[in-house]
Design a protein that fits this description.
homodimer; 216 residues; alpha/beta; Arc Repressor Mutant, subunit A; Rossmann fold; 2 domains; seven-stranded mixed beta sheet; two-stranded antiparallel ribbon; 9 helices; 44% helix
Chain lengths: 216, 216
């Protein structure tokens, strides 16, 4: 596949974006290991990827490989981080501070990739008005003001199923542009908002596939 | 692509398995909506998938489509559930009952797909020896016995990074065949064990891609 011109990106499959995240992690690992260049073949073998898929995914964004050398690890990593918007910090609102919300608040993977939880929203009177690790917990009444003041465009929804749609409507009305939803329900948002549902059971299903196969 | 013979499956990309989970959910939705047959094209349009990819993924497992009709929704769903090992119940051990462990314990998505948490393992003396919703919490000292008695092959690791490897070694020694790891660290397991790492920040990264693109 030819590299495509950059001024108008074609519609990029979400799975491609997802894989760019994976490639970025692989390149970080290679960089830590002192590897300076890598071919798509080597990348595929080491991380159990598909080399044709790697080349196809990258081709959406330009020509990164150098003939006879492969990819420069540091350069490709930086380029993918730029494409993924990881060359900056994103302030994030976390909605819901129950078990899941607390777990996500303390999840180290987010901050490592540039996502900083800047405000927590929870209506529990025992929580709202307090701080957690210097991050304010506010009630949903103050949500719109807080999001605007802090320039927050991304929200993580970690509330029970029953309140997920209502809280999402409030977030959208307050100008949120992207929602990461952990409540196991289908949310409705307008076309101007990116919604991503996290379904944790999908991960278990890939495991049961291998177990079921092994058992036959 | 031709359907391949069934007696020896080719190496199936993990992304294909992951997408089978997604297709199963789409088919469940169609079934609820009373749709009886669907073409790969309709499936792709309705759920924002790639129709060539759908056909290619399914072709690993046989010929499911009927010329001029497409797929029978109920039949394809049942077939995919069988392939994914979702036509039976899997007893699961949950290791770690802190914030994340509690959240996962109450996560409704697991049981809906046939994963039943049958035992919780936590060494906190305030927790071990008690029950949660009729599920026993035991200390890791009793782990091996509990896993064997209950015939558990799958474990979810939701402990802090520092103890994740040690607990995984114990699980593997006790005969666990598949581990779903939520601790943001790389675990080492032998080749006989399937390990799946859940990296929650990947989900946020697909969102930041779209935000970054929109902002330019």
């Amino acid at each position: 596949m030819m590299a495509r011109s950059n001024y108008r990106l074609p519609k990029i499959p979400e799975m491609t974006i997802r894989r760019l995240s994976v490639y970025t992690r692989c390149l970080l690992q290679l960089e830590e290991d002192g590897v300076r260049t890598v071919s798509s073949q080597e990348l595929a073998e080491r991380f159990n990827l598909n080399s044709a898929q790697v080349r196809k995914d990258l081709a959406y964004f330009g020509e990164f490989g150098v003939r006879g050398i492969g990819y420069y690890v540091a350069g490709l990593k930086a380029e993918l981080q730029r494409i993924l918007g990881l060359d900056r910090e994103w302030a994030v609102a976390l909605v819901g501070f129950g078990n899941l919300g607390s777990a996500l608040f303390h999840y180290k993977g987010f901050s490592r990739q540039g996502f900083r939880i800047a405000v927590v929203i929870d209506d529990d009177p025992a929580k709202a008005g307090r701080d957690v690790d210097s991050v304010p917990i506010v009630s949903s009444r103050d949500m719109a003001r807080e999001l605007k003041t802090r320039g927050i465009q991304v929200a993580i929804v970690a509330v029970p199923v029953e309140s997920a749609q209502a809280v999402t409507d409030q977030l959208v009305a307050a100008g949120i542009k992207a929602v990461l939803n952990f409540a196991p329900t289908r949310l409705r948002v307008g076309r101007e908002v990116r919604l991503k549902n996290v379904d944790l059971s999908i991960e278990l299903e890939t495991l049961s596939f291998y177990l079921a196969k092994g058992g036959r």
